[in-house]
Backbone:
């Protein structure tokens, strides 16, 4: 507690506020005696009170708002609540609820959190950024709000995503919250509903594109580098027309990554490794067909290809096992509408507009949905996959739940229990034919917090593709046989903190071995990471 922070302001400082847990001595010392009811609570009692309050609420959005208010009031208590039961609270602070919260962000706006950088402030971004009170920032999650989950252009309403992701850096991998900073770049929105809504909080203009946008991004990167030289910059939920070139431009210059491209790729690869433990097959024997050919689809296809190269294929042979299908059909060499980043996965094949026909022709072992469109993995699709494969891999990865390409129940029912299933947003267990199936959440939440902790512990200069393969393997090898037997191909969410710390230690070891660290290698990396991990307690 800083010396200046006495009295009333302390009760409104979320990093240092303890609310009813201030002891009598602290209350007297800080000049807040009389400003609180007499009882002195333990953190456990405070957590129990929040659980009770949440139980009285009917909707997940209301619960999200209660937790968001708590985060603005008392961060220690907020994280103690989330970390008390991650499997329950992750769907509230993250997908699916964060999607609805973003859609209605302007209507439910309460307290400011993070930094908003409007393009109208170009030339002054460093000044605006310097208004953030913390000076040692290690992780920034930044969005421009154009592709928020599968919900499209939400403009500044997308701020819920950087806030939610950074909460999970802390809750899921122990990155101290004061080292994190959520940022929204406001370059306008093309969402007419928001532009027409008097409550919309962002710039009331259409999106800026082209050279002016690129210059804005460049100024932003420079400002971040100048103010926070040890920070890692995570790009989140940009439209692919910007996401792909931004990553290309900065990945070899600064410590940065794109979670939708690389984090998603790693969690998919982890899921594939887990699936192969069930099917007993090799990675190089797989053929992948993606529904969706954007940031996530091409990112996953590329990382899977790079992982196949480690198992002996050439990169061309590996990419030839990854087929992509988008709104105009299969990506094949007669198509003239494709972007450069899609071309490595554009193969010789007859034009094909039907996904089921593509399955019959390509005979994929796995289908991965990253299309933003619900229900595309219909009964015909799942039945075709189940005819071709003994254990078809079915990953509807689009978020939130309302955008999932199919539900867990549909996948198990239509495949007659054969599907190896994981989805971007969570589904409850499914009872089918007397068997209980536990669907995994194939979400980059298994990767980005661990990546963050590894970068923090090593002060890595870069985030490389190879680090994501290390992360994928680390996640997959933690899955127990008992989990696999129930169909679960990821570590259980109840143990996600422990799983992330293990994954972080593996990534950190790799960073040290590659000479990318800016700190000396500790004797025991695992203990070093666990020692650094944030624990929700009053100091
Ligand atoms: N589970 C996880 O951890 C993650 C999940 N995701 C999810 O993946 C989804 C896609 O994200 P991202 O790749 O960044 O988005 P993009 O917009 O870059 O890609 C979407 C792709 O889907 C295609 N598409 C749209 N409609 C259809 C359709 N009816 N049939 C077939 N293809 C279609 C688009 O084609 P076209 O461009 O021609 O319109 C495009 O290729 C989102 O819902 C997101 O939430 C993303 C990251 C992580
Ligand atoms: C999970 C995630 O990053 C997305 O859906 O965009
Ligand atoms: Mg995302």
Residues:
């Amino acid at each position: 507690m800083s010396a200046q922070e006495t009295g009333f302001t302390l009760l409104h400082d979320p990093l240092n506020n303890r609310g009813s847990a201030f002891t009598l001595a602290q209350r007297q010392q800080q000049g807040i005696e009389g400003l609180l009811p007499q009882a002195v609570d333990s953190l456990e009692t405070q957590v129990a009170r929040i659980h009770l309050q949440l139980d009285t609420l009917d909707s997940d959005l209301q619960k999200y708002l209660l937790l968001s208010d708590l985060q603005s009031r008392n961060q220690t208590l907020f994280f103690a609540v989330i970390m008390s039961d991650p499997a329950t609270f992750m769907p509230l602070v993250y997908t699916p609820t964060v999607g609805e919260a973003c859609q209605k962000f302007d209507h439910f706006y309460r307290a400011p959190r993070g930094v908003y950088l409007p393009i109208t402030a170009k030339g002054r971004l460093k000044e605006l950024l310097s208004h953030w009170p913390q000076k040692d920032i290690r992780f920034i999650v930044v969005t421009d709000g154009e592709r928020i989950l599968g919900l499209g252009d939400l403009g500044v309403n997308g701020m819920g995503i950087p806030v939610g992701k950074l909460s999970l850096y802390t809750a899921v991998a122990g990155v101290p919250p004061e080292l994190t900073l959520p940022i929204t770049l406001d370059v306008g929105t093309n969402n007419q509903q928001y532009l027409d809504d008097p409550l919309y909080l962002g710039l009331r203009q259409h999106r800026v594109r082209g050279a002016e946008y690129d210059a804005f991004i460049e100024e932003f990167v420079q400002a971040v580098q100048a103010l926070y030289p040890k920070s890692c910059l995570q790009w989140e939920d940009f439209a692919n027309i910007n996401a792909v070139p931004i990553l290309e431009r900065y990945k070899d210059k600064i410590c940065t990554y794109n979670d939708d491209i690389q984090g998603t790729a790693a969690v998919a690869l982890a899921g594939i490794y887990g699936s192969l433990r069930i099917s007993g097959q090799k990675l190089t024997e797989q053929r992948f067909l993606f529904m969706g050919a954007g940031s996530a689809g091409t990112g996953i296809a590329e990382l899977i290809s790079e992982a196949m190269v480690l198992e002996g294929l050439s990169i061309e042979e590996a990419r030839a096992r990854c087929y992509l299908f988008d709104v105009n059909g299969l990506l094949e060499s007669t198509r003239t509408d494709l972007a450069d980043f899609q071309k490595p996965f554009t193969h010789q094949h007859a034009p094909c507009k039907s996904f089921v026909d593509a399955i019959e022709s390509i005979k994929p072992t796995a289908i991965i949905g990253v299309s933003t469109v619900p229900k595309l993995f219909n009964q015909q699709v799942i039945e075709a996959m189940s005819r071709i494969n003994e254990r078809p891999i079915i990953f509807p990865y689009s978020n939130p739940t309302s955008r999932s390409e199919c539900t867990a129940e549909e996948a198990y029912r239509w495949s007659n229990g054969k599907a190896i299933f994981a989805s971007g947003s969570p589904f409850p267990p499914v009872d089918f034919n007397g068997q209980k199936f536990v669907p995994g959440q194939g979400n980059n939440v298994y990767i980005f917090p661990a990546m963050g902790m590894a970068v923090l512990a090593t002060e890595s200069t870069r985030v490389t593709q190879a680090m994501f393969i290390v992360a994928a393997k680390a996640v997959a090898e933690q899955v127990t046989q008992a989990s696999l037997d129930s169909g679960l191909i990821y570590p259980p969410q109840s143990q996600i903190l422990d799983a992330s710390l293990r994954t972080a230690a593996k990534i950190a070891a790799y960073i040290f071995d590659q000479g990318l660290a800016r700190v000396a290698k500790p004797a025991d990396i695992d203990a070093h990471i666990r020692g650094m991990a944030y624990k929700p307690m009053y100091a």
User: Anything to note?
Assistant: The radius of gyration is 23 Å. The chain has a mean pLDDT of 97. The chain is about 45% helix and 10% strand.
